[in-house]
Amino acid sequence: MLEGSGSKITHNVAQNLRRLRGERKLSLDSASQLTGVSKAMLGQIERGESSPTIATLWKIATGLQCSFSSFLGSTAATHANSQESSQETSNETSNETSNETSVLQPQVELIADPNMQVVTLFPFDPLTSFEVFELVLSQHHEQHSTAHQAGVTERIHVISGELSVMQNGQWETLKVGEQCVLAADQAHAYRDDAGETRFIAIIHYPQ
């Protein structure tokens, strides 16, 4: 379940799921059909009575055709990010003359179970269609993921430990400093082969 930041994470997920479903004018039945998550479970998540696993949240994001990180921040922050991205486009000229640098802090930390931790480094940006996470797997944990939206890719860079990734039914081992690109629109998986492995995942959504 999503823990780490406690009830704040559960609250953010609940609010954002309700918002996204409302924006798409979807009933719980329709959302269930799109995501493959039961109507009862979606209702519990929206009411803050249940906190989904990372795998379940990915299923919801895929079914609703939205980014994973769109569930994690506060609804105010989510709207602010969208507005800032739109404003950046119209202010390109003034931005070119500015030398100021914005310092961003990791936005959200979540833990699916004691053996997986995820930190949002950069939430989804509609201008770039990227979001960036730092993940830590421990105790030789193996995390499987269902296919994401068509065209989604994940760029993996190992910071420490040893990571095995699976795509097309084949496992590949990555050591510190090595990278790979996963076609995330098909089933894939990650495995900690060192007892603790830390890596960066840059997720790109097709525009």
Which labels suit this protein?
alpha+beta, six-stranded antiparallel β-sheet, four-stranded antiparallel β-sheet
Can you put this structure into words, describing what you see?
31% of the residues lie in helices and 31% in strands. The chain is α+β, with helices and mostly antiparallel strands and 207 residues long. The chain has a 6-stranded antiparallel beta sheet with strand order 1-2-3-10-5-8. A hairpin with a 4-residue loop joins strand 2 (116-125) and strand 3 (130-138). Helix 2 crosses helix 3 and helix 2 (28-35) crosses helix 4. The radius of gyration is 17 Å and the shape is globular. Residues 79-98 have low confidence and may be disordered.
Order of helices and strands, N to C?
HHHHHHEEEEEEEEEE
Mean of all residue-level pLDDT scores: 84
Contiguous runs where pLDDT drops below 50 for at least 5 residues: 79-98
Largest sheet: 6 strands, antiparallel
The gross shape turns out to be globular
Q: Specify Rg, calculated over alpha carbons.
A: 17 Å
- Which strand order spans the largest sheet, edge to edge or round the barrel? 1-2-3-10-5-8
Number of strands: 10
Helix content: 25-40%
Q: Which structural class do you get from the secondary structure elements?
A: alpha+beta
Q: Can you count the helices? A: 6
Cα distance spanning the termini = 30 Å
Strand-residue proportion: 25-35%
